[in-house]
Amino acid sequence: MPKPRLALIRESDLWYSFRAHPSAIFAVVLLALVALTAFLAPLITPQNPYDLAALELWNAEIPPVWHEGGQWPYVLGTDTQGRDILSAILYGSCISLVIGFASVVLALSVGLALGLIAGYFGGWIDNVIMRVGDVLLSMPFILIAILITAIATASLPTGLKDVFAAPILIVAIAVPSWVQYARTVRASAMVEAKKEYVLAARLIRVKSWRIMLHHILPNCMTPIMVAATLNFGLAILSEATLSFLGVGMPPDQPSLGTLIRIGNQYLFSGLWWIVVFPSVQLCLIVLSVNMIGDWLRDALNPKLR
Fold this sequence. Notes:
By secondary structure, the chain is mostly helical. The chain has helices at residues 5-10, 13-19, 22-39, 41-44, 85-121, 123-137, 141-155, 165-174, 178-192, 196-203, 208-216, 221-244, 256-264, 273-299. The longest helix is centred in the middle third of the chain and has 37 residues, at 85-121. It is elongated, with a radius of gyration of 23 Å.
């Protein structure tokens, strides 16, 4: 009788490595806590920071609750519009996590497809895909993202710019990111395509797409998993950078980058909590993701087993 899937996971080397890695456990718990509070923000926060009717200007610039002049329920204080900082951070974390995850999934999908095609078929197809990737790599990441965001935003009517702000950011971050996945998959696919089991599948006339998806792709997933995990943190930082530069999420739908940009304007006027707490939240998210990526890289490295 086959063992249940949960039992197989518990007996796997990956699970053993995770249990023996305190920093990985800490990072997973921290990221899970951040994600849980972010997605449950409408249920646990005292205010909806996106609802302009809920903002009260007479409660503006309230310091944190432990500071002189602080008051409940504004634990981390309020900004110049009366927006609760804790509520804004949790709502903004949700936006940053969703945009980061969606951009990684989009870049991963495009990179996997193009990398498999380039590595399996080779020839002029490989040259075209890789030369496009070289062009993208020759330009700064942020410059490409800003250019895509600016063109897409300028092409939309005024009333739709805020509506499509998140999808535009996802595409802007994903476009220069797929090259890394494509190169990684291409290198693995070129090696796997010359092995006997692939040659045998070709001899019995198995379709190319089936060979790529069912035979070559599973043997390329180890480096891709590590790259995707590490790039998740970079995607969140990229979103925060674009929003900080003013080409990301609008002020009425603030992500962590937007909150930091708004708070930075009041840093030297004594309202330090408006910029410090969103910055700490962003650091915690990226730190936890990077720690998970470092553990995953070591756990999946056969030379370290």
